[in-house]
Amino acid sequence: MGFLRNALKNLDLKDQTQQRQPEQQQPPPQPQRKQQVFSHSDQDNSRNFDIGDIFSHPIAEGEPPAVFKRVQHNQKPQGCSYGDDDEAIHTNNFYNNLTLDDQTFPVWTLPYSLWLTKDPDQDAGLAFNHTEAAQRVFGPDAGANPAQFYFNPPKIKSFVISGEGIKNNVSLTLKDHNKLSVIATLASANDKFISIPLAHGMGFITATYNNIKPIIASQVGFQEFTKVGNVGNISKYKAKLFNQVVWSVYVDGDVALSLKDPNHVVGDKETNATIQFARGESQYYDQAAGTYPVAVDLKGSVKGTRGQYRFDYKMQGKSQSGTGLVWCLPHHQEALVDDVKNKYAQLELDSPTKGVMRAYATNELIMEEDLPVDINWEPWASFSNGPSYSDKAKEAIKRAAEEEVKQDVVGMADIDSMYTSGKILDKFAYIAYVTKFILNDEDLTSKVVPLVKKAVEIFANNKQKYPLVYDTTWKGLISSADPGADFGNSNYNDHHFHYGYHIHAIALIAKIDKDWLTANNNLVLNYANTLLRDTANPQKEKYFPQSRSFDWFHGHSFAHGIFASGDGKDEESSSEDYHFAYGMKLYAKVIGDSEMESRANLILAIMKRAMNMYMLYSDDNKIQPPNFIKNKVAGISFENKIDFSTYFGRGTIADEWIHGIHMLPITPISSYIRSEKFVKEEWDQKLANIIDQIPDGWKGILMLNSALFDPKKAWTWFARNDWEDRLIDNGMSRTWSLAYIAGIGGAD
Which of 64, 417, 465, 467 is least enclosed by beta carbons within 10 angstroms? Predict the structure, then answer.
């Protein structure tokens, strides 16, 4: 880890303690909130929706509640307009590195990476490259199986898009901030500029010149550069670099390119031409040249138990085929509808960490998934026939509940961390759910529910130790704590982890008492809605970006906020990622928001497919390198590397923290993502030999996870008489653990 963190300008997001707390400002008046319509019928039964656009309905409208003070973030986005009337800027998105620090950290559109280069005595501009699997670096022992990490060599300047007048003081600005796309502009001192649209999966690197003489530089160097003909009105060139990689270059415009020296290709005049680059040679490149996406719209629909999501590429220009070319990842390829699958362009390129990408001759990618509509509140496992509780099991659960409801719920939750407090709230909300719906014990329920409500309302009233504030700069809901505190929440780290626990806890208590949400002028409702607008907004709007956390292209979320990173965005907990989506689903069921519930179900279905390719490795995984699969879990997944580690260490005994952070918390959705086959392999190969030595709460996490393949053994451990509280995590309860295990068949 030390080598990787120091090899690049890769900032450790846990150690940024030097930044100032944002200045507090007076909040605006409370806005008018959109009226929510509640259904008080039992919503536990599966509902098959027929929704044409699951992104059309806002969670709430208007400004965030006035209880959240307005602040301007002390860290300003580079190259972006960020006034009150400007667009929200993505903080956990693929292009975010271009808004941070000196803007020179790479971004990955996939399969290509790009970065601003303004190195002294070198050509300035936007550099780009593609790396293939053979270039991966494994370590720290390159011959180990499994290796601890692998990464792709960064910043190899295959090409630099530049032009006459583009110097080292070049400015890079961004506009049209969308979830899947953004427009970058390089400007020279005389205000001449080059426009470079960036979009996930774009088929070409495209640069449109505006009265500039093109300069195309290469640090690798041109071994050959020749014009090979025309594609309609477009000139086609072949570039062979000294690393023997061949690229196709297309020019739509009145400029001719020629090789000036081994490191430079130049145009013969100032031009408004569009120049495009693609690795390799193909008739499909020829047929799509001239088109490029300037925006990508995210669309989705649900019909019955089937969900569809679509990336609609807004193409500019003309091509011979009438369509463009887009790349997609393996989890897309499996889910593509036949109409798109039949447009496969017989082109493949490696992605940095997610296997082999394929190109399709299309202006849209359309994927379909089966949705987990039947997984709701009750304990669920892939092998279970549904919950059934014996009297003996209920007695064991009740004994645990009687002890745990005695704990200081409010005091334990009212702490200085949104993340840890959320885990505590969720812990006791689950106890309340068990006492109400599994034990049917009104006495125990009446003891715990008021305490959880009181604890939640501290946060809903924004009276916790570090209140949340609304950041008018990037536009989001952040902690008022220092960026180095609470895992970087104030710099947009981990919001879906933190807020997911709160939302899930609120859903559980609202399942018991729906009227609580709308009491006190919609206090808790407004709180939960604002957390969801921050993390999972269905639409791009003035106050929050669309889908801050979940990356619809990668198939999972990114936790990494506004800290520049040489290897891109990252996430280290797949389980807390899908826990957020599961909490959103349950909350949507309570408030009767069918579009939100459908989005959550679709996200969970996408995660199931993607995470089992990229983060959770069964022995038959075909995506990750063979010498990495035996780790069984990714550890930290970056855009450009995977490191079998965590930000807080490996484990007291062995690697239990790395495995455990991909397990917690265990809920009914866990078995949907983590298959019985995978969990057993991970247990047999990595955990069985160390479990008895683990001295702390990580043991409880691993033991509850073991119920996903051996619930009877897990029940024996949790139900034993010589119980030790130190062996379960502070966000776990023995009550829920026993109830879940018994519900999936673990109890006698």
Answer: 465
The pLDDT, as a whole number, for residue 41 is 35
Q: Which of 350, 576, 643, 656 is catalytic?
A: 576
pLDDT at 6 over 80: no
Q: Each residue of 28-47: pLDDT tens digit?
A: 333 333 334 333 333 455 57
Q: Which two tokens stand for residue 713?
A: 């053994």
Indicate yes or no: pTM above 0.85.
Answer: yes
What confidence tier does 718 reach under pLDDT thresholds 50, 70, 90?
very high
Quote the CA–CA distance of 343 and 688 in Å, as a whole number.
Answer: 47
> Strand runs (DSSP E) across 624-714, as ranges?
636-638, 641-643
The answer to whether 192 touches 163, Cβ cutoff 8 Å, is yes
Is residue 102 annotated as a catalytic residue, yes or no? no
Q: What is the DSSP letter of 223?
A: E
Q: What would the two tokens of residue 685 be?
A: 């190969």
Q: Which helix (H) or strand (E) holds 383?
A: none
Q: Per-residue b/e over 506-530, b at no fewer than 16 CB within 10 Å?
A: bbbbbbbebebbbeeebbbbbbbbb
The one-letter code for the residue type at 28 is: P
Structural tokens at position 66: 């006035």
CA 743 to chain centre: 31
Q: Which residue has the tokens 């003489």?
A: 213
Question: For the residues of 565-618, what is the DSSP string, one character each?
Answer: -TT--EES-HHHHHHHHHHHHHHHHHHT-HHHHHHHHHHHHHHHHHHHHHTB--
Q: CA angle 394-396-398, nearest 5°? A: 65
DSSP state of 745: T
Q: Which residue among the candidates 63, 270, 404, 572 is catalytic per the annotation?
A: 572
Residue spans of beta strands (DSSP E) within 501-562: 550-551, 556-557
Active site residue 576: yes
pLDDT band at 8 (very low <50, low <70, confident <90, very high): very low
Helix pair 442-460, 495-512: axis angle to 10 deg: 140
Structural domains in the chain, CATH included, are 76-293 (2.70.98.30), 295-370 (no CATH)
Cα dist from 672 to 293, 297, 631, 666, 679, whole Å: 35, 29, 21, 11, 11
Identify whether 494 is a catalytic site residue.
Answer: yes
515-536 and 442-460 helices, crossing angle to 10°? 50
